[in-house]
Design a protein that fits this description.
The protein is an all-alpha fold and 534 residues long. The protein is built from 23 helices and 2 strands.
Length: 534
């Protein structure tokens, strides 16, 4: 028999529901923004701590590993510690760790602080999504998740620009220190207004009555599987993948961790990660769609500025500004996605969103090395305007068929899917970029020899122009060195641009392959039960 939705698990209590949405969204915006800003500031951190750029990347990797390990178990921690208490602990840990990051005197201290920051940040989004799912009935979740998705989607968009401004005009320490006052405000507001439902307190007391049983083996498998996977994906390309002993080792341990995790969690009654929720068809498909969304937003958010800097020579700030139009479009469209989610078949919204993403990526495959700033901004705009129709409906549809008591575990796994999608997207894109650039450079230089009349004509014309300019300047120049240098520069530019186009092609194909799966979803019905009783 179905279980009718009840506000007994609401995080609002006597406070207006929308006030709660605003309060719990602040910490996630802080966390998502921080992740985007940190990527921009790596070169400044390297210079400030007198370390190499490769060593500085561990500032990002350490955070991702800790984040990946804590997100899957955040549902269990929320059930065991208490949802509000765990939320407050996560905010406090993130803010205090941010202070330590900003004060870090060396790389070791900074990496350790980033690990604790990742642990604190990993508990924020899953708990907040669980609160929203329990506070709003199914027919109102669209607008609620739209408000929450606003911070998740816009953080990576505005983060690079803000990071560039902070690091260029102040110093890198403030990309972390800025979190301290925000964290303090978030903690106070959450303490005052977020409610811990009595029913959840009773469930926790019942759970702890027979003594606290901690699935330590399950936690070990989670940390091993996802932590090693993050290291593998984040550092694979830098270490030349499986030619590196480090990457081979982490990949093996990750595979063993996943095997152990599946066997362990499906064989005990009180798992630390409830993989059984993936047996729900709706939830499993939503996880795949959310993974696709993470791949799109995180992958493209890194690819577009990188393309503008490497191919067109943009500064980091100007490259970040090219994403701003997309961010504005996302902000404007978000309320409409929220309103339509409760009224239009979720399959239609998700189908539209994924098809739009595919077409936007198709448009990016037509970009070349002569594009203007407006061309790049419009390409991002075409992609960004449909993002709300992806993240908002999938967040609402994910809980269809699940009991309210499963919200914490479901929120944890849906966030794991989003983060894994982003990590896979960035890792795959960077690997493809380097290898396709080598391929295109090889192909382009094949015809650059004396038997090609076009090559000879170009060299002669370029040589005449360069020698004429050199003589006018009163300096001498090697007859061939100048033209060949200019030609090689153009070859590199074209090969790099073609490699970006190849990546956009692959992302486009992946999106189009995933799109038909939305037809298998069961849409939420207004006023219907969120899931079966138990």
């Amino acid at each position: 028999m179905a279980e009718q939705w009840s506000d007994a698990r609401s995080a609002a209590g006597k406070v207006n529901k929308w006030v709660i949405v605003a309060i719990i969204s602040i910490p996630t915006f802080m966390e998502v923004l921080d992740a985007a800003i940190a990527n921009v500031a790596l070169s400044h951190i390297a210079g400030g701590l007198s370390i190499s750029n490769d060593e500085a990347t561990w500032v990002v990797t350490s955070y991702l590993v800790a984040n990946a390990a804590i997100i899957p178990i955040s549902g269990w921690l929320s059930d065991t510690i208490g949802r509000k208490r765990y939320f407050l602990i996560s905010i406090a840990l993130f803010a205090i760790s941010s202070l330590l990051c900003g004060m870090a005197p060396n790389l070791t201290f900074l990496i350790l602080a980033r690990v604790f920051q990742g642990v604190g940040g990993g508990g924020l989004a899953p708990v907040e999504q669980s609160m929203i799912a329990d506070t709003f009935p199914p027919q109102q979740r669209g607008m609620a998740f739209a408000a929450f998705a606003f911070v998740v989607v816009c953080g990576p968009v505005f983060g690079p620009t803000l990071g560039g401004v902070i690091t260029d005009n102040i110093n890198w320490h403030w990309i972390f220190l800025i979190n301290v006052p925000i964290g303090a405000i978030s903690f106070i507001l959450a303490q005052l207004f977020v409610c811990e439902p009595k029913i959840m307190a009773k469930e926790r007391a019942k759970r702890l009555k027979g003594g606290l049983r901690v699935d330590l083996l399950g936690f070990l498998f989670v940390a091993l599987a996802l932590g090693c996977l993050e290291v593998t994906l984040d550092r694979g390309q830098r270490e030349d993948w499986f030619s590196s002993g480090l990457i081979t080792t982490t990949a093996i341990f990750s595979a063993l961790g996943f095997i152990g995790l599946i066997i362990r969690e499906l064989s005990i009654d009180d798992p630390i990660v409830d993989l059984r929720v993936l047996a729900n068809r709706n939830f499993a498909i939503c996880c795949l769609v959310m993974m696709t969304g993470g791949l799109i937003i995180f992958g493209s958010t890194q690819l577009i500025p990188q393309m503008l800097q490497e191919v067109l020579g943009y500064t980091a700030t100007d490259a970040g500004l090219a994403l701003t139009a997309g961010g504005v479009a996302t902000v404007l469209v978000m309320p409409f996605a929220g309103m339509l989610t409760g009224k239009v078949d979720v399959r239609a919204l998700l189908g539209f969103a994924l098809l739009s993403q595919g077409l936007a990526l198709l448009n990016m495959t037509h970009l070349d090395s002569t594009i203007s700033f407006s061309d790049a901004a419009l390409a991002r705009l075409y992609q960004a305007f449909a993002l709300p129709f992806l993240f908002v409906p999938v967040s609402a549809a994910a809980y269809v068929g699940l009991a309210q008591s499963q919200s914490n575990q479901a929120s944890a796994l849906i966030n794991v899917a989003r983060n894994l999608g982003g990590t896979f997207g960035i890792s795959t894109a960077q690997t493809m970029l380097e290898r396709r650039q080598q391929f295109h450079q090889t192909r382009l230089v094949e015809g650059l020899n004396g038997l090609n009349p076009n090559y000879n004509e170009w060299i002669n014309n370029a040589g005449a122009s360069i020698n004429g300019a050199t003589q006018a300047g009163g300096a001498s120049s090697d007859t061939m060195a100048g033209p060949l240098g200019a030609l090689y520069q153009q070859v590199q530019q074209q090969a790099t641009m073609l490699s970006f186009v190849d990546v956009f092609h692959v992302l486009m194909i992946f999106v189009f392959v995933v799109t038909p799966l939305v037809l298998l979803l069961r849409p939420p019905k207004p006023g219907a039960a969120p899931g079966p009783g138990h």
